[in-house]
Write a structure and sequence with these properties.
Distance between the termini: 81 Å
Structural class: mainly alpha
Bound molecules: zinc ion
Number of domains: 3
Oligomer: single chain
Radius of gyration: 28 Å
Shape: globular
Length: 467
């Protein structure tokens, strides 16, 4: 640290305010006396600067959320900027933690909607600010609803005479359709919290509601490998913190769907305020307003195989893993040729293999292996695939139709299984779908040599297999 000892205090200050988080700051001031002295002298300025680096560009929204979490009311205007408000170590740690969660979501958002070629966010400074403030406002709404629900439980005995009068109004406002009294009250509490938001910020919030909901649905599909996909009700709560934890651990959190109405209430509140801002109805009712991104990288990019313009919906090495929630395993199975997906014994073996004792083989790995196959003879498909190219979902499905069965046959052989004799009816064999002894006795991962021609439509033309 001799270099630092001779640095002017201004330079040391410049270094400290650039540190990305409090762990680094703490380590730095413990290792060097000069750094420690500078920190002591300008601790408030340095702590706030590091907090800004750790919590992201929407610091005021992050602070508002933290304030609400502590006292269950919103700060007076200007309070967070005043000397009355002191940043405590605990508050800084909480905001830093939330900042990491928000960054995680930003990276995911960026990969899906901004730049499919990068796992870390490519949002520009303005887009990042919009994303962060919207997430923090959503999160604040989530906390308000949680607190409101708790209060609601405590005050169940209250008389609702006043509200009954309200229900007699002849013109129910469109914002209130489908909401009961409690939900309307909770929604109005959100409107109070959001009342200072501009129209632009409210549109960002509506977009974030849709993004979080879509991400939750994507995750639900990705973690249900072969079981039928469980429908995720539109109105379920999205808890940003739990969503991030689920995405990181790839586990379904059973307590994620423990409440009702809240997602809908956040966007409902934002839409109600937008109507109050006299925004035209058509704009307010948009499901996904494009409010966060100014531009999208590769928006006009084409599929390498079919040349369709698919932009961010193209899949390549960085984002192929997203297929786990877009084309879940149960839907991949349906792309096996003929009647194979109805061969329960084969599907069970394949499922066990892919699950791999709790350490599943990810879809992007399987897709890459299928691309690298070099089928010849009867299996030749004369297709060229490359992991360095970008493909649309339809072409990925074509790859699975052509090579999923071949891949599985090769994987079986590689793992030491000796394939039985081919059944004459191959993947079109009907007997394998209802007779386990037959399904297990012969190999069906092959083209039919008898019966109908290969690739018949199973539903209409499946041959009657014999044993
Ligand atoms: Zn294509
Ligand atoms: Zn058969």
């Amino acid at each position: 640290m001799t270099g630092i000892s001779s640095m002017p205090p201004d330079v040391i200050l410049e270094i400290l305010v650039l540190l990305s988080d409090f762990a680094t700051l703490s380590a730095a001031i413990r290792t060097c006396k000069r750094l420690y002295e500078t920190f002591q002298f300008r601790s408030l300025l340095i702590t706030h600067a590091v907090l800004r680096n750790a919590a992201g560009p929407a610091l005021v929204d992050a602070e508002r959320l933290d304030y609400y979490g502590c006292v269950h009311s919103l700060p007076e205007e200007g309070h967070l900027e005043s000397a009355e408000w002191k940043l405590t170590r605990d508050a800084a740690a909480r905001m830093e933690r939330r900042g990491r969660d928000v960054l995680f979501l930003e990276n995911f958002f960026s990969l899906r909607y901004k730049d499919r070629t990068s796992l870390s966010s490519r949002l520009d400074a303005i887009e990042e600010l919009r994303f962060h403030r919207a997430i923090y406002r959503y999160w604040l709404c989530y906390e308000i609803l949680q607190y409101d629900a708790l209060r609601e439980q405590d005050s169940d005995f209250e008389d609702d005479d006043e509200d009954e009068d309200e229900d007699n109004y002849q013109d129910i406002h469109p914002d209130d359709l489908g909401l009961n009294k409690e939900q309307r009250r909770a929604r109005d509490a959100l409107c109070d919290a959001l009342v200072t938001s501009s129209s632009e910020e409210l549109f960002e919030l509506v977009e974030i509601c849709t993004f979080l909901k879509d991400t939750e649905i994507w995750h639900g599909r990705a973690v249900a490998p072969t079981s039928p996909i469980q429908p995720v009700p539109y109105w379920t709560t999205v808890n940003p913190e739990k969503l991030v934890a689920s995405l990181q651990t790839r586990q379904m959190r059973t307590d994620q769907y423990d409440s009702s109405g809240q997602h809908e209430l956040v966007s409902n509140a934002a839409r109600k305020l937008l109507r109050a801002h006299k925004i035209p109805h058509e704009r307010v009712s948009q499901a996904r307003p494009k409010a966060i991104l100014t531009s999208v990288s590769g928006a006009d990019d084409r599929c390498s195989r079919c040349h369709a313009i698919c932009g961010t919906d193209l899949f390549g090495s960085t984002n192929m893993y997203l297929l786990s929630g877009i084309l879940p395993f149960s839907e991949q199975l349906a792309l096996l040729p003929g009647l194979l997906h109805r061969n329960r014994d084969e599907v069970r073996l394949l499922d066990q293999y892919v699950r791999n004792h709790g350490n599943p083989i990810p879809v992007d790995v399987r897709i890459r292996q299928m691309m690298e196959l070099e089928p010849d003879g009867d299996d030749a498909d004369y297709e060229h695939w490359s992991k360095d190219e970008w493909y649309c979902l339809d072409c990925i499905k074509t790859l699975l139709r052509l090579r999923f069965m071949l891949w599985w046959r090769e994987e079986k052989q590689k793992s030491g299984v000796t394939l039985q004799d081919d059944c004459w009816y191959g993947y079109n064999c009907r007997t394998m779908t209802h007779k386990s002894s037959h399904a297990l006795k012969l190999n069906h991962l092959c083209k039919p040599t008898r019966g109908d021609a290969p690739n018949v439509t199973p539903a209409n033309n499946a041959p009657v297999g014999t044993t």
